[in-house]
Amino acid sequence: MTITAQQVKALREKTGVGMMDCKKALAETGGDMEAAVDWLRKKGLSKAAKKADRVAAEGLVGAASSGTGAALVEVNSETDFVARNDRFQGLVRTIAEEALAAGGDVDALKARQFPGTGRTVSEELTEAIATIGENMTLRRTAFLSVEEGVVSTYIHNAVAPSLGKLGVLVAMASAGDRDRLDELGRKVAMHVAAVNPLALTTEELPAEAVERERAVYAEQARASGKPENIIEKMVEGRMRKYYEEVVLLKQSFVLDPDKTVEQAIKDAEGDVGAPIRLTAFVRFALGEGIEREEADFAAEVAAAAGV
């Protein structure tokens, strides 16, 4: 299999490892990017294997709340210029409000009536494309609700009310004071925005991700030459640290690092006046996971010049 320079470059940017080692890792794993990351980690070469490999796309994340329920949407545009357009911002804000009734189903949201137009949300997007002159897509939506309590929303670096590049929902179930509960929920949402946990609890982590980490740690431990019973303890220790890094309730709370998020919530129960249970969270970062083709500027100039 031929390993391309672009593959080597992508792996190098993701791991911080030298080009020759990246090329060897790709060759050893048949060009599989994730397997190559693991190969480098097992060899102790990767310095940044957990670095997020996300390419930004333009547009906005919008949030809307009804108290015991809240929704997020991501609407993409081709340029940030359009994201600053008042019409586009109004479009995203209205779509977020309609998402409250769509229950997290993007197809159901697209089929909803866009207020005051006689068109569906999907048709209104098509209309906006024709008017603004740039492609737009309703990429995704999410919805959280509680029977009693609040679903708090947070937009990081908002460009307009309820609109920005990163949005978070946090569902807090409690019979306590709603205002204080929402204040706490917003703080937890700020933590989620900053730290980007993978799951709420250890049990909710994808089994594949857990086994992958365990395999990497076991390989690293065996390289030390320690006996198998010691290796097992070393792996368990590393796994506990891994859970503290990626599980929301086990993470050190960014607003009070001496406490875990779980402990901070427990300590807030006296102020709220009732037990609190964090039931779910959602985090949307604009453009995460969207691959965007890299432009070769020199080639474009040469083509324009007829070279």
Structure description:
This protein has 13 helices and 11 strands. The chain is of the alpha+beta class. Among the domains are: 1-53, Helicase, Ruva Protein, domain 3, CATH 1.10.8.10; 58-194 and 275-285, Tetrahydropterin Synthase, Chain A. The strands form 4 sheets. A 4-stranded antiparallel β-sheet has the order 5-2-1-7. A hairpin with a 2-residue loop joins β9 and β10.
Observed structural traits:
Tetrahydropterin Synthase, Chain A, Helicase, Ruva Protein, domain 3, 3-stranded antiparallel β-sheet, 13 helices, 4-stranded antiparallel β-sheet, 307 residues, flat, alpha+beta
- How much helical structure, as a percent, in the residues? 40-55%
Structural class estimated from helices and strands: alpha+beta
Low-confidence runs of at least 5 consecutive residues? 47-56
Assess the beta-strand content as a share of residues: 15-25%
Q: CATH class of the domain at 58-194 and 275-285, anyone?
A: Alpha Beta
- Largest sheet entry: 4 strands, antiparallel
Distance between the termini: 32 Å
Strand order of the largest sheet: 5-2-1-7
Compact description:
The protein is an alpha+beta fold and about 300 residues long.
